[in-house]
Amino acid sequence: MIRKYCNIIIFIIIAFCLLAPFALLKIKGDPYEIFPAALFPGGANKIHIGDKIQFDNMKLFGIGAKTRDTTELDKLTLFKYIHIHHIIEIESDEYFGALPYANKQPSNPNKRYTSFATDKDIEQTKEWFRKGLREQNCKDSILIVKSTEITLDGKTRTLLSETVTDERFLNLY
Amino acid sequence: MKDFLISINRSIGTLFKRIQFNAWVDIQSLAYFRIFLGLFMLAHYLPEWSWLGDAPQAFFSPHLFTMASLTDDFLPKWVYVFMDFFSLVLLCLITLGIRTRISLILLFVISYTGYSYEFGFGKIDHEIHLYLITLIILAFTNCGSKTAFVKDRMIKSDYQRWALMLLCIYIAFGFLTAGLPKFIKWVDFDLHEIGFLEWFFRGYYIFDRTHLLANTVFKTPYFVFEIMDYLAPTIEILSFVFLLWGRKAWRVYLVIVSAFHMGNMLLLNIEFALNITCYGLFLIAPFLSFIRQYLPKGRTARRILLSTVCILALYQIGHKLYYMHFGYYPGYFTERFIIFNYISVISWIFTIVIGIYTIRYKLYDSAVTKKGLEKI
Predict the structure, then answer these.
(1) Å from A131 to nearest chain B CA?
(2) Mutation choice for B interface testing from A57, A58, A86, A118 by most B CBs within 10 A
(3) Which of B102, B131, B193, B306 could form a disulfide with B274 if both were Cys (CB 3.0 to 4.6 A apart)?
């Protein structure tokens, strides 16, 4: 029986292995992406081209240890070896990984990060940031995460402005 | 009903045979490609995971269906250091052809584990998928049974046929998953909504992807990007058409997607060079087999290969020891990233040129290959 319909059986198995991860990703979203699976980068978003072109960005700031001014942090120095793709993932999370913001409660806490992190992990991560801030001559008690909106000129596509739309603080002590 | 099922079974069988025919690569070509893959990885693209050992644990957030979700934290640093060095050893064994099959399987397991934890920050990068799958697919071929220091026992050519077929289906379906959402959204006949520029502006202004030909995008009219918006997903969703069309068509498709990846590198500075380890199986392998008459043979060949592998391994060990001290990782915003871009472009040009040559002179249909094809 199995031999007689072996091609159909193999076809169904292959189709299931290919389609199930794709369907799961589309229906349930990114956290349910299977690795490895036959999924290549989709990224089907579009940008609106008008007189102005606008898109969001995230920036990190510290407070200068001597100057007391808000200073933009160099992400490469702060995150060292962590790839920019992963930094973006952490920044865009409402919790900043498993670290709670001092001035904002997340509307929908990301259980993925918090379920894995213990108090010890959080303290270790805070110490890691404190070190990074000190390396950039900033006070090691606070990390500021600013959401910004970049505006480009629609004709020349050059940078017109970058305005802050949201500001959050991480207390590191 | 029974007749209907039998006829469906027969039709699917014919379909499988057609894909097997189009995907076929002979053993000698695979053996040469195994050496190419090893040298390619040892020279530049060796994966590194030891930096993960210093990652803050509060950022650990693996996807549910990856290996990393089995643990609560990133692994201890020594595990990643071991994985780095063990993968180096395995790549040396694969290149030389010593216990190739088991080395490929072990390298797949180690790479899968390493990448699972790398993606534990919450994002799965797709540029390594084809490399990873190629490793396990090659383990089910006879690539280690020829031109090897310690030859593997030959397995039935049936396994090789099915393995190569599955690889081609994987590539084709992967492109379909990438192309379909883009095709639905991007083909909108609206010059004010452009998908390519969403990738470009974010990359240029946020990720510092400003190298190679990125600046030319500012001088290019919008309609060109709109055309690109239609062209790219159309190519991607046509993958199965080319695969089923024929042996030549499939290789033409792989040359087109190689050019597409190179375009991505030039304009968007997005790296996909690891895919060469997969496309090369169909584009570079037949060429290597073709030029074997000009390559050294016997003892001289062994000595050259052994010395090359030793030099590359020593270079990689030195490199790892030097950078391990401060957990360096090649991210963006670095001088090293710019050099990586150029190496990637050169690798793509090499693949495309060799691919065109392979297609032009039908090297994939050489005498050796034909023998294998006749059996399908």
Answers:
(1) 12
(2) A86
(3) B131
Name the A residues in 130-149 with CB < 8 Å from any B CB.
Answer: none
Q: Is residue B169 part of a domain?
A: yes
Q: Which residue type occupies B179?
A: G
Q: Which residues of A touch B10 (CB under 8 A)?
A: 7
Instruction: Please give the residue that has the higher pLDDT: either B332 or B178.
Output: B178
Residues B201-216 have a mean pLDDT of 90
Assigned token pair, B36: 């190419």
pLDDT band at B82 (very low <50, low <70, confident <90, very high): very high
Provide CB contacts within 8 A for A90, sequence distance 6+: A96, A97, B59, B121, B122
Q: Is residue B191 part of a domain?
A: yes
Q: C-alpha B49: how far from its chain's center?
A: 19
Q: Which residue from A25, A18, A27, A42 is spatially nearest to B171, judged by alpha carbons?
A: A18
Nearest to A47 among B112, B181, B201 (CB): B201
Q: What is the pLDDT of residue B38?
A: 97
Largest CA-CA distance found in chain B, in angstroms, rounded: 68
Q: Residues of A numbered 58-77 whose beta carbons fall under 8 angstroms of chain B's beta carbons: which are they? A: 74-76
> How many Å lie between the alpha carbon of B111 and the closest alpha carbon of chain A?
11
Give, in order, the Cα–Cα distances in Å from B94 to each of B34, B303, B315: 7, 16, 18
Query: Does B64 sit within 8 Å of A31, measured CB to CB?
Result: yes
Q: Is residue B3 part of a domain?
A: no
C-beta atoms of B59 and A125 within 8 A:
yes
* ipTM for the complex shown: 0.90
pLDDT digits (tens, 9 = 90+) for B114-165: 999 999 888 898 889 999 999 999 999 999 999 999 999 999 999 999 999 9
Closest-CA residue of chain B to A114: B58
Q: What is the arithmetic mean of pLDDT over B349-355?
A: 98
Q: In this structure, is residue B205 part of a structural domain?
A: yes
pLDDT at B332 over 50: no
Q: At what angle do helices B157-186 and B276-283 cross, to 10 degrees?
A: 120
What is the span of the domain harbouring residue B266? Answer: 20-373
CA-to-CA separations, A15 to A54, B138, B163, B202, in angstroms, rounded: 41, 22, 16, 35
* Chain mean position to CA B151: 25
Q: Between the ranges A136-140, A145-149, B353-357, where is the mean pLDDT highest? A: B353-357
Q: Which residue carries 């895919």 as its tokens?
A: B275
> How many domains are there within chain B?
1
Residue with tokens 């934290």: B73
Q: Give the CA distances from residue B37 to residues B86, B104, B346, in Å, rounded to whole numbers and listed in that order.
A: 17, 11, 16
Q: Distance between terminal CA atoms of chain A?
A: 68
Mean pLDDT over B252-259 rounds to 98
Q: Which residues in chain A have Cβ-Cβ distances shorter than 8 Å to B60?
A: 113, 116-117, 121
Find residue A150's DSSP bridge partners.
A55, A162
User: What is the distance between the alpha carbons of residues B280 and B140, in angstroms, rounded to a whole number?
Assistant: 17
DSSP A110: -
